[in-house]
Each structure stands twice: as C-alpha cells, then as structure tokens.
Design a protein that fits this description.
This protein is mainly α. The protein has helices at residues 4-11, 19-29, 33-40, 44-54, 68-92, 104-124, 130-134, 138-152, 154-163, 168-176, 180-190, 195-203, 213-230, 233-238, 248-251, 255-261. It has 16 helices and no strands.
Length: 265
C-alpha cells in the first residue's frame, strides 16, 4: 500500500516554482497580459514550451506564432494562465515513461487537446472564470502523479493487469486508496483553487455526482471531454483510456449538445 504521505510527496512537487513562472502567473491572475509577457520573455524554457504548444495544428493559427506578447494577446488572460499551468506540469513530466506509452510529444498533445476543447466548452457555456478554465490542466498533472505511483509498484501493477481485467482506477485505489479524481482534487488544493473546482473534478468521474446543479453540469461536460479525448487512438495505445469508465446515463442530457459542439458525426 502506498501511503498518503508518499502521494503528498509527489503532489508537493507540483508545481515547481521558478521565480519567473510565479511572477508570470501572479500578473496573469491580475489580468496584466503586457507585464506577464515581459516577465515570461526572461525564461527561455517557458518561451520554447509556449511556442511549441500554441503552434500545434489544434490551435488553428494559420501562421507560426513566435512572439510571447503575441501569444498571450491571442490566448487572452484565462488561456494564457492555463498554458502556464500546463508548462508547470510539463516540468515534472518524466524523461522516460515506464507504464504509460507516452513521450514528450504525445503528452504535449494531450495537454493541447484538453486545453483547446475545454476552452471551446467554457466559451459555449459562456463561462469566463479563470480557475474553471484552468481546471482541465489537473488531469495531465494527475496522470504524471499516477505514473510515479504506479512505478513504485510496477511489478504489482503489471501482474494485476496481466491476470485480471482490472481498470487503472481500481488498481490505483488498491495501491493507495485514491483514484485519479481524488489525486486531481489534492492537486487543486495544492494550487489553492476554489472548492468548486474539486467538486467539478470529482463529478467528472461520472460516478461521484455533485449536489450542486451547476458543478454537476460542468462535471458532465468534463466527463464527456475526458472520454472523448482519451478515446483517441494515440491515448488508447498509451493506456490512458483505461482510467475513464464512460457513464452514458450520467451525461445523456447533454450528449447531443456535446456531439454537435465537437462536430462528432
């Protein structure tokens, strides 16, 4: 059994806190895009990450965007904050993944897909809350923590997966008495996000609905987004779709709306 102290030790590393990154996030939280861009320009690694992220085809820019001020200006405050969170997570990403078949490129692709589509959803729902728009960054963070936890007991995990059809969430619960969404909640607490973020994250599991109608509705949208994203061939191959057990009855009232928004035929 992996203890809560071990889990917190991993989570404590999220996010790393380079001085420039902390200043950038503080300025974004104040809504000051101009000063945030000026500060961010002093971190070459942050610059390189943002350029690689936003120039992925998913973002839909016709011409390559290379200037940080331009990137922040195009993304706006909330999406720039989300990109900064994604960068913090990438700093903790393992150089070599052992359990999940991921690499730097596919992990960045996961971040980009979730970010772009969650922005599409929050825009559709007319949500402008920065914390809500950054909430989707919690899933890639929890996948990194889960990889680290699984690697602590890699032989046990591989044995369980080989002899029985046990999903990853069940294995995670057996190892540390927490599932992926519990880990997301603890990371949200580490980031000092409002409590409603944790409530929405738990609801997105599809099996822990929120008593708050608004949070529950957002949880349904996130549940669909996670299933939709992790069902992509690259993430099925990576083994990530084994985390999400699709709960069709839970999301039946918004499924058609989601399909139309994501242009699912």
């Amino acid at each position: 059994m992996i203890t809560l102290q071990q889990i917190d030790a991993f989570i404590e590393k999220i996010p790393p806190s380079p001085k420039i990154l902390k200043q950038t996030l503080a300025l974004l939280d104040q809504g000051d895009l101009v000063q945030a861009a000026k500060v961010a320009q002093n971190d070459p690694a942050l610059n390189a990450y943002l350029k690689e992220l936003v120039n992925k085809p998913l973002y839909g820019f016709k011409n390559e965007v290379t200037n940080i001020s331009q990137i922040f200006g195009i993304l706006g405050v909330s999406r720039s904050q989300q990109a900064a969170y994604n960068y913090m997570i990438s700093l903790l990403s393992p150089a070599k993944w052992k359990l999940f078949k991921l690499n730097k490129s596919s992990f960045y692709d996961l971040q980009a897909r979730l970010s772009v589509d969650w922005h599409k959803i929050t825009a559709h729902l007319q949500i402008e809350d920065k914390n809500l728009q950054s909430a989707v960054a919690l899933l890639p963070a929890s996948i990194i923590v889960s990889e680290a936890l699984f690697c602590e007991k890699i032989e046990d995990v591989q044995l369980l997966r080989s002899v029985d059809e046990i999903d990853l969430n069940t294995i995670l619960q057996r190892l540390c008495n927490m599932d992926l969404f519990d880990i997301c909640e603890r990371i949200s607490q580490k980031w000092e996000m409002p409590q409603n973020i944790a409530d929405i994250i738990q609801a997105s599991s599809g099996i822990k609905p929120s008593q708050n109608e608004t949070n529950n509705k957002l949880g349904k949208w996130m549940h669909l987004l996670l299933f939709y994203t992790l069902s992509k061939p690259v993430f099925i191959e990576a083994g990530l779709n084994d985390f999400i057990d699709f709960q069709i009855d839970y999301v039946s009232d918004i499924y058609d709306d989601f399909s139309t928004l994501m242009e699912i035929s």
